[in-house]
Design brief:
With about 240 residues, this protein is an all-alpha fold. About 70% of the residues lie in helices and about 0% in strands.
Length: about 240
């Protein structure tokens, strides 16, 4: 890819695993923020956030593993290169890729504490959750981190399902593929991440907030079993060689 290498600082063979490992540390900051405020509302909000983030990390990780099984590598550059040589995984990965994308978006929305999964900030129950005792720049850092996480989740979704910085190529459509190659890879990646961010933001203004029992039941009773079955389906797709 002519412009793709400039978007990646370090390329190593466990890039996706590294992203998952680093993202799991964020819950510690929220728990410490709620505990150190010496306020019952912030403490309860932090505990809710911790339970929510730890629970939905399972579905987030399993959906990522599903696409890693399809790609056969954890290297971000190799995943994008595979999609630049053919179609994006959301199209070439069959039904398991579509299911994995839907679960990834739902789990990613919950992981970033965005509505309708913003129970840690439930104003009607916990004033502002773990934000209650914070104002000024400290409050600003929480919101900055929330929207930064939103863009990171969108960027990972763009990498795994929509080719990252790779343009859209359709096998056999040489003229179309030639036109797509003229668009810089930076534009491709930013446009995909912004489009997925729009979907996650749209959730917040469309769906009502869930109760804490509904939120955890959605993960443990529905998303996690579906994700496990979907992983098995993707393994069957790879074993029988159903790649486009």
């Amino acid at each position: 890819l002519p412009w793709g290498s400039g978007l990646q600082i370090v390329d190593f063979n466990i890039g996706i695993f590294f992203l998952l490992a680093v993202s799991s540390i964020g819950v510690l900051g929220i728990l410490l923020a709620g505990w150190s405020s010496n306020n019952k509302f912030t403490l309860i909000g932090a505990l809710r956030s911790g339970a929510q983030m730890v629970s939905y990390e399972l579905s987030l990780g399993l959906s990522v593993i599903t696409m890693v099984a399809f790609a056969g590598t954890m290297s971000i550059s190799e995943i994008c290169q595979m999609q630049s040589d053919g179609m994006w995984f959301i199209f070439s990965g069959h039904i398991p890729a579509i299911i994995a994308f839907v679960i990834f978006i739902i789990a990613g929305t919950a992981e970033t504490n965005r509505g309708p999964f913003d129970l840690p900030e439930a104003e009607s129950e916990l004033t502002a959750g773990y934000h209650t005792e914070y104002s000024g720049i400290h409050f600003g850092f929480f919101y900055l981190a929330e929207y930064l996480n939103l863009f990171i989740v969108s960027g990972v979704a763009a990498l795994l399902f929509f080719g990252g910085w790779a343009p859209l190529h359709i096998p056999g459509w040489d003229a179309f593929n030639g036109v797509m190659d003229w668009i810089p890879s930076t534009i491709w990646f930013i446009a995909k991440a912004i489009a997925i961010s729009f979907i996650i933001i749209w959730f917040k203004w469309t769906f009502p907030r869930l109760r804490i029992d509904q939120l955890l039941a959605l993960e443990w009773k529905y998303l996690l079993p579906i994700n496990l079955v979907n992983l098995v389906l993707m393994v069957l797709v790879v074993c029988f060689g159903l790649h486009f």
